[in-house]
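A further point concerns the way the authors explain their paired sequence and structure data. Each protein is reduced to its one-letter sequence and a matching series of backbone shape codes. An entry of this sort, consisting of the sequence and the corresponding backbone structure tokens, reads as follows:
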Amino acid sequence: MTRLTVGSGLNENNRLPNSQIIIVGQGSYLKNLEFGQLSSKLVGVDEKVFKEATSRSNGFSSTPLHLNLAKVVSLSSEYSRHNSPSNADALFRELKSTSIAEGIKRVSVILFSPFDHVLAHVAAISKSFPTYSRKTKKSFLEDIDIEVVVTDEKKLSENDVKFLNSMGNYMRICANQVDAPCNEFNSEVFANEAAKMVDDLGADISKTIIVGEELREKGFGGIYNVGKAAIHPPIFAVFSYTPNGASKNFALVGKGIVYDTGGMQIKTKTGMPSMKHDMGGAAALLGAFCTLVKNGFKENLHCLLCIAENNISPVANKPDDIITMLSGKTVEISNTDAEGRLVLADGVYYAKHSLKADVIIDMATLTGAQSYATGKIHAGVLTNSEEWEIKAVKAGKESGDLVHPFVFAPDLHFSDLNSQVADMKNSNLGSMIGAPSAVAGLFIAAHIDFGKDLNWLHFDIASPAFNGERSTAFGVPLVCKLLGEHVEANVAK
């Protein structure tokens, strides 16, 4: 995998023509940037060309500086109220379309950024250069260096730099996992890789791994029944970090459907491709968990991965089947392609009753309808807590992983899942009162009394989890920022 390194200040070893140079900053700052500050890195570029390129910085722009080896990316300082002040999405969309010059082994992104935008900009850069490939022609690229120059009075500390490096690299691991196909990255591979990532942290972390028939025996009706038709077994993996002095208990519960055929109600020939991405929620929360623990998270933190492959066989879930969940509630299967909520319902129940979590955050590529509710850039958040809803939206703007609320009204909308023969259906295929994405989230919440006596947040990241055919590692920066007050790095707070 290409190495990603975040550093504070300029690295004089990165210069043309051996490194490809991308200069990034707000236009108002770049216009006043002195050529002498970068002249040693821009070999072959004279001051006149540099000034012409930076003086064009008005709003968003991308200006070539030296052949295909250097350019200036200017970010607008203007933004709408539901966008991030960092304009991180614009930066991502520009960088992901950047061609790496033939033979180049190192890309250096020189980032001029206000302190409060650094995390979002580093996240945007980190996801812009995908890692997974099985092309027989190998890329020359070996290193991506992010050289951060803070443009206001604040400075990056060693803790900040460590945090940014951790987050950026776990984002890239997350994207690599999500982009890997199921014939390589099945349920067992995912669980084993997750366990190795946790072991590599070197922290005191307990592990609970429940596999296959043991899930059925222990009552995990959601996870077991979704995954029982696949060759590789369903798995529930729990990693618990409990440092001394902790007084709060956070649980991260991720949907890890390594492939989703739709089950018996099979997806179409155009609807099924890309369903390897259906474990994006679990991969993102695993990346966030590792980032936070590696940077000295001060509270109890649990990562729960609900891993399964939703496939077809004579023993697969069928419409009209009734299953019993870990919560003890019965569910009538009306849609075998509404499987994510089944595995998550078991996960959040375990988080509440076995781990005694007081804050539960679940994340999933849950519903196609999410994009109709909040678009392809913003994830949806459903929560019983107005305080945490505000925190989530704020963390989204500050991380660049944008979020917008769904309507939380179980008293109005949960009746959409009424069943004549079970406690609830897993889906409503007819006329609905509530928004489909919100009702899907309410199904999960129903197994923990809609968040009674705790704070529950559900993130539906179905659309922002990928861009084109590539993972965006959406969710890693979001959760790192949402819980960042519990690490020493100010850049995460």
Summary: The two ends are 29 Å apart (CA to CA).
